[in-house]
User: What shape does this take?
Amino acid sequence: MVDDEYGIVDVDPRGRSIIIETKDEWDAYMTTNFAAMRAAGAVLSSWITGYHGEEAGDLGYSVVGFVQRVKIGETVMENPCVATIVWKRTAEGWKEARWHCSPAPA
Assistant: This one.
């Protein structure tokens, strides 16, 4: 995700926007999130429900359907999602140029 050329925007637990533009910011953000989830006893899992990808020269895209699951005690929350990813071929291999995730349509 940190290869995304436009940065990452997420929402913190208070509903404020968080803009993440560097690998260090991403690492700090995820370290904080996972520490909070561990402290709450959360069990996290996900599974892919669908995938489609295309390549055209040095560009490509993929669409990934997946479900994120969080279980805390007896409470379970499942979030169906769709991620779209634009890829570019570089000298180092394929890199994400843009990543976006939204709730899956009902």
